[in-house]
Design brief:
Elements (H helix, E strand, L loop, with lengths): L1 E3 L5 H11 L3 H9 L5 H8 L15 H14 L3 E5 L3 H16 L4 E4 L3 H4 L5 H9 L4 E5 L6 H9 L3 E5 L13 E3 L15 H15 L5 H4 L2 H10 L6 H15 L4 H9 L10 H18 L3 H8 L3 H36 L8 E6 L6 H12 L3 E6 L4 E7 L6 H7 L6 E4 L3 E7 L3 H15 L8 E3 L2 E2 L7 H9 L12 E15 L4 E8 L2 E7 L6 H4 L5 E12 L2 E13 L8
Parallel strand pairs: 1-12, 2-3, 2-4, 4-5, 5-6, 7-8, 13-14, 16-18
Antiparallel strand pairs: 8-9, 9-11, 10-11, 14-15, 14-17, 15-16, 17-18
Helix pairs in contact: 1-2, 4-9, 5-9, 5-11, 5-15, 9-11, 11-12, 13-16, 14-16, 15-16, 16-17
């Protein structure tokens, strides 16, 4: 694995060290991340509500707010249609709860993943029509649903699309489209998630009604959850939303969220993190849509019934455990297929399809295969009629949306982002699609694109790790894409004591020492480095710094990302 270090401007580093009286390693970190202009430093380290952009800068937002307010005042039904993932369900819940608070007559609907597939569905539109709704609002979907929006128009419904996915060349004929990624949208921040766009719509409505913005802060918990789970850029106002949202989440008045946090064993007396949302909360929410009815998620987020909230949280937890079992079975089959059918020396991507794989887990399996082999992976589940639904995950160097666009003639439909996408395809087209996609990937990728690379923020000594340094790292959060938790190299440290293999033989725990300073190290899924640790030779660590909490005690530890013998290979600068 290559270790890559930043090369910030030395003059900027010196200026930062003198201006803020900070150590060199912190100055290097700030300079490398562009945090040296006074205004940028202030807004980054002090997220504030005032940093949120004017919602009316978003194209069509004024038109959309007027239309919603019309239905609020007339009590005419408003139908909110959300995607079945965390982003879609939090966005739909946010709009339902917010509009209900304003006196609106609101109904929500989340489509069935297997029966209706991704995005706006005719079944959902039919449900809205039967309810007598004349206003239809999408959350986290709809930007490419040209035919479905036409279908809603035929039923005399005005459609407001709230979405953040990449628009196509032709936009749907909707009453209003709220998507900062529209070419002619002057909204200054383009990386909102679906729940973030929904929050902007609600903010505009509250402002136009002349109500206090305090009403909006009450919904930051849902927006923060959607933002964290969707892995959008943790910069600009996403930082503000998540900063305040995680604070709101700790004291949330929503019984369902409280029960979900409790069942995930998250301590509300301590700071919540994006990592906890991604790995402990999001999987339980997504399990509802993967294996069952995601409408229960909206109910969980919006119910005031504590008993019902507890029941729903338990259901989601049990379904998540079932999802894990199903997922592992598909992962095992996919790994077998890779070893049996894929030439890793030749192919720069992996495309697998099979009947019987559960459609609800193909996205997770694609991520696992991508991580295992460090190359783009597409996993497709086919039904008995040969209709396939797949998920794709990529690595740096290949834009999935562009790749699927280049191979679109073999697909029924596709959509997504550079790093994650979904598609539908007929089984009869799989072989030609695979050949075409692999040809595209082999052209795009140079050999070194597929070599695992670890981007580090600098080199530290164990003596640098103190409370002041840890407090600084805490202030750099919330972490996420665009502002990842800093990773450092610690060079030439000695193993102190006897390393241990823990966690069913998968993980390592050991202690390192440097100039009489010792610190604990945890290495998840790093048991294969055990032999290097017992050679009684100095090692280099790539790691993140964290606080380990155990039985009421707090200690600093290193969470290893890579381990190698010192001077075993040259660093990439």
């Amino acid at each position: 694995m290559r270790w890559i270090f930043p090369s910030p401007d030395p003059e900027i580093m010196i200026e930062l060290m003198e201006k803020y009286q900070i150590p060199e390693v912190i100055a290097q970190l700030m300079a490398a991340r562009g945090l040296y202009e006074t205004n940028k430093v202030k807004t980054f380290f002090s997220p504030d509500i005032s940093q949120l952009h004017d919602p009316f800068l978003m194209k069509h937002l004024g038109r959309a707010t007027d239309r919603v307010i019309k239905n609020i005042k007339s009590k005419s039904p408003i139908f909110v249609f959300g995607d079945y993932d965390v982003d879609g369900t939090t966005g739909a819940s946010l709009l339902y709860a917010g509009l209900s608070t304003l006196g609106a007559n609101v109904r929500t609907y989340i489509p069935n993943r297997e029966k209706e597939g991704y995005g706006l569905s005719e079944l959902g539109i039919d449900k809205a029509w039967k309810l007598g709704a004349d206003l239809f609002i999408t959350c986290d979907c709809g930007i490419n649903a040209i035919n479905r929006v036409n279908y809603a128009n035929e039923k005399s419904m005005d459609v407001i699309i709230t979405d953040h996915h990449i628009p196509g060349d032709i936009l749907p004929d909707a009453f209003a489209i709220l998507n900062p990624k529209q070419n002619d949208c002057r909204y200054p921040f383009k990386e909102l998630c679906g729940a973030g766009v929904a929050l902007k719509l609600l903010s505009g409505i509250v402002e136009k009604l002349g109500l206090s913005f305090d009403l909006i802060t009450d919904f930051m918990d849902l927006a923060a959850l959607g933002t964290s789970a969707d892995l959008v850029s943790m910069t600009d106002e996403n930082r503000v939303i998540v900063h305040y949202g995680l604070q709101t989440l700790r004291s949330t008045r929503r019984p369902g969220l409280r029960e979900l946090l409790k069942i995930a064993n998250l301590d509300l007396d301590r700071d919540l993190s994006v990592t906890q949302m991604v790995f402990h909360i999001a999987p339980r929410i997504n399990a509802a849509g993967r294996l069952g009815d995601a409408n229960r998620v909206v109910e969980l987020f919006t119910t005031l019934d504590k008993i019902r909230a507890k029941t729903l949280a338990k259901e989601l937890d049990q379904e998540n455990k079932m999802r894990q079992t199903i997922q592992q079975s598909v992962v095992d089959e996919a790994l077998f297929m890779v070893n049996a059918e894929v030439d890793l020396n030749r192919d720069k991507a992996i495309v697998l399809g099979s009947q019987g794989w559960h459609q609800g887990v193909v996205g997770i399996v694609a991520s696992k295969i991508k991580e295992e082999f460090n190359r783009p992976a597409i996993i497709i589940s086919f039904d008995e009629e040969g209709h396939g639904k797949g998920s794709a995950r990529s690595v740096k160097g290949l834009d999935l949306y562009k790749a699927l666009n280049a191979t679109a003639k073999y697909l029924d439909n596709y959509g997504g982002h550079a790093m994650a996408a979904g598609l539908t395809i007929q089984e009869s087209q799989l072989a030609e699609f695979r050949e075409s996609f692999l040809a595209y990937a082999n052209i795009i990728f140079q050999e070194n694109n597929l070599e695992p690379t670890l981007y580090l923020d600098g080199v530290i000594k164990l003596a640098d790790i103190n409370k002041k340094f840890m407090d600084f790292l805490k202030k750099m959060g919330p972490y996420g894409p665009g502002n990842m938790r800093p990773k450092f190299a610690v060079r030439n440290v000695q193993i102190s004591g006897n390393p241990r293999i823990i966690g069913n033989g998968n993980h390592l725990r050991f202690q390192v020492k440097q100039n009489q300073i010792a610190i604990q190290v945890i290495g998840f899924n790093m048991a294969h480095h055990y032999q290097d640790l017992i050679k009684d030779k100095p090692i280099d660590l790539a790691c993140v710094l964290e606080i380990n909490r155990w039985k009421g005690q707090e200690t600093m530890q290193l969470n290893a990302r890579d381990i190698r013998l010192s001077h075993s290979e040259s660093d990439q600068l």
